[in-house]
TrEMBL record:
Keywords: ATP-binding, Kinase, Nucleotide-binding, Serine/threonine-protein kinase, Transferase. The keyword Kinase applies. This is Protein kinase domain-containing protein. Residues 9-266 form the Protein kinase domain. InterPro entries: CDPK_Ser/Thr_kinases, Kinase-like_dom_sf, Prot_kinase_dom, Protein_kinase_ATP_BS, Ser/Thr_kinase_AS.
Length: 276
């Protein structure tokens, strides 16, 4: 552990592990406040891989985005020979993935509350020129049962004035078709992924399904969006309309994050089966 980190924070128990690092709970020695510290093992990110370059970008991107109520905040950054230590907001340790597993589906009113927070975070990223590129339930942390924070900017990219990106980044169920087609793509890949997240919250299963990664990719590319009656009978037509506009293969017709936030399902709490 870095000396400066130990001087400023008391490092407590391990609370999680990812591919490149370990997350600990810590408390500030000056205020007693609790935080999480994510320590990235630099040896695992060495080399020229896209992963390595992006992971080292994560603190820069968090700095650019902070503060936002629904994005994990970076408070301090320390570096020693072996690690990069990021002191960030401490969440409950639960994420949207756990919540969906525990509940099967999320009632529409609750889904709207959490999804609106997610889209505010995504819209803020896009206004700052940041594309997350790996929006999925595991990266949406629960600060409490009714507050989410978007996390894990290890695959994110900064783009200038509508600049396009390339390279296959993301997770099979959530990846946008234009990424799979190897085309240049922009920030609307995040809108597609957030649409998949919303669908899963309401249905309990993904809109584009396959047994293998290849089968999932084929389903995504077909983009055949269905709302099985048995699952969606209690779900409002308004949210189905929003899902069609987010999970739209034609990027020029797909909503932007700002347009999603202006959709009636978000702005008009009374629309549809929200109170069910
Ligand atoms: N800010 C946080 N507050 C509380 N727990 C956290 C926080 N950040 C991460 N965790 C926990 O630590 C685990 C590891 O997080 P990390 O971001 O290193 O990796 P990951 O996103 O799960 O995986 P990978 O980096 O391999 O994709 C998470 O699954 C979560 O349980």
């Amino acid at each position: 552990m870095s000396e400066a980190l130990n001087r400023d924070y008391l490092i407590c128990e391990e609370i999680g592990r990812g591919r490149f690092g370990t997350v600990f709970r810590c408390t500030s020695r000056s205020t007693g406040d609790s935080f999480a510290v994510k320590s990235i093992d630099k040896s695992l990110t060495s080399g020229d891989s896209l992963d390595a370059q992006c992971l080292l970008m994560e603190p820069k991107i968090l700095h650019l985005l902070s503060p936002h109520p629904h994005i994990i905040q970076l408070y301090n950054l320390y570096e020693d020979e072996a690690h990069l230590h990021m002191v960030i907001d401490l969440c409950s340790g639960e994420d949207l993935h756990n919540l969906i597993i525990a509940n099967g589906v999320i009632p529409e009113a609750e889904a709207r509350l959490l999804f609106t927070q997610l889209m505010r975070a995504v819209s803020h990223c896009h206004k700052c020129g940041v594309v997350h590129r790996d929006i999925k339930p595991d990266n949406i942390l629960l600060e409490s049962r009714n507050t989410v924070k978007l996390a894990d900017f290890g695959s994110a990219e900064v783009v200038m004035d509508g600049e396009m990106m390339n390279g296959v980044v993301g997770t099979p169920y959530y990846v946008a078709p234009e990424v799979l087609l190897g085309r240049e793509y922009g920030e609307k890949v995040d809108v597609w992924s957030a649409g998949v997240v919303l669908y899963i919250m309401l249905a309990g299963f993904p809109p584009f399904y396959g047994e293998t990664a290849l089968e999932i990719f084929e389903a995504v590319l077909r983009g055949n969006l269905r709302f099985p009656v048995t699952t969606f009978q209690g779900v409002s037509p308004t949210v189905k309309d929003l899902l069609r506009r987010m999970l739209c293969k034609d990027v020029s017709k797909r909503f932007s994050a700002e347009q999603v936030l202006r959709h009636p399902w978000i702005t008009n709490e009374e629309s549809g089966a929200g109170s069910s």
